[in-house]
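During the second half of the funding period, the structural biology subgroup turned its attention to how the target accommodates small molecules. The most pressing case was magnesium ion, which had performed well in the primary screen but for which no bound structure existed. We therefore specified the complex as follows and requested a full 3D prediction, including the ligand pose.
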Amino acid sequence: MMTEERDVLFTEGTIRNRVGELALQISADYSHVDDLLMVGVLRGCFIFLADLSRRLTIPRSIDFIALAAYDKMTTATGEVRLIMDLRADVRGRHVLIVEDIVDIGYTLDYALSLLRPREPASLKTCAFLRKPARLKKKLQIDYLGFDIPDIWVVGYGLDFRDRHRALPYIRTLPAGWSASPS
Ligand code: IMP
Ligand code: MG
């Protein structure tokens, strides 16, 4: 299927600019920190984290956790499972959790409650997208790319049933598009 201009929420250029702004802000805020630990929440974060981490001007390490939620297109149980834990010890370190999108908020809430008891020196959050209309958890997002309406979006790491992650832009998912190649 063709991508029409009206289906695209954020073009490659818009994404690149916003990631640059976030990187500037984060680099300034952590300029006193000699080793920021970025913790990506797999799998959706992988492209955003790759871009963001390369544009920081401060020393940083990268680690990942993998979380799995229920199938959000059909149910909303709030159940989140830990698939893979961190390799790094976060005690005493400055930790920035990096998420692709905050929808209801269960995933980021889970990540925070997983890491907080491990006593990092600081714990902050960065999400590229947020759907404020759906958010049920009271969550602080310290660095946010964009707020978006309550629609399903794909591209730039975001999937629909594990497809369309590699699209360089962020677009809506038209009905019936899941079966077509990305
Ligand atoms: P939450 O736990 O409801 O906040 O959901 C967060 C997770 O759901 C994200 O990390 C994504 O993996 C996934 N998700 C939520 N909305 C979308 C979307 O519009 N497109 C792709 N994935 C989404
Ligand atoms: Mg995610």
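Two results from this model are relevant to the next phase. The pocket of inosinic acid (ligand 1) is lined by residues 44, 69, 72, 99-108, 152-154, 158-159 (CB under 6 Å). The chain has a mean pLDDT of 91.
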